[in-house]
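User: Small ask, check this?
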Amino acid sequence: MQAGAKCACNHSLAIICGVFAAIAVALVLAEGRCADDGGTASDTAWLCQAASGAATSLWAFVTPGIAAAALLVGVPVYFAVAAAGRRWLFRYGR
């Protein structure tokens, strides 16, 4: 690899890690809202089982505040993975 050459794989990996970190935070916080409303989160599906027996998607519990928190986690994860990937590619990418 030439010195200073950009590798799109590093950027793609950083985006994927940031997105998955943001999704994980959003779902954990949505599970908390589900439990606060008296429901239980499903272990096998992204559902909230209400006390009445009705099932609702966990995404229905995502508020703008939860989305902002997910973004506040996802963006730093992106930058951390991008920086670590650049260091790794610079050191071992030949």
Summary: The chain has one domain: 9-88.
